[in-house]
Write a structure and sequence with these properties.
- There is one protein chain.
- The protein is globular and about 45 Å long.
- It is mainly β.
- Helix content is 0%, strand content 52%.
- It starts with a strand and ends in a 5-residue tail after the last strand.
- 17% of the residues are buried.
- Strands 1-2-3-5-4 form a five-stranded mixed β-barrel.
């Protein structure tokens, strides 16, 4: 089964080798027919501590690294901060 890949924004990079990434998704509400935004936060493994708050990054699903970390950092497309 292929691994899921998502794009999001780093909201916290204070922990060692961990970045918290907020991934937003948009969808049309089934009854109201309006565009709705929802977001989830994911703990991602950041081996080199390269993530910076506000940076747009790509995360990939991986085997569990700790209690909360099920994702790993793949790339960062530069700082937006």
């Amino acid at each position: 089964m292929p691994k899921r890949i998502m794009k999001g924004v780093v909201v916290s990079a204070k922990q060692d080798k961990t970045a918290i990434v907020r991934v937003e998704r948009t969808f049309t509400h089934p009854m109201l027919k309006k565009i709705v935004r929802r977001s989830n936060k994911y703990h991602a493994h950041d081996e080199g501590n390269v993530a910076v708050e506000g940076q747009t990054v790509t995360i990939r699903e991986c085997a569990p690294k700790s209690k909360l970390k099920r994702w790993e950092l793949v790339t960062g497309e530069g700082s937006d901060a």
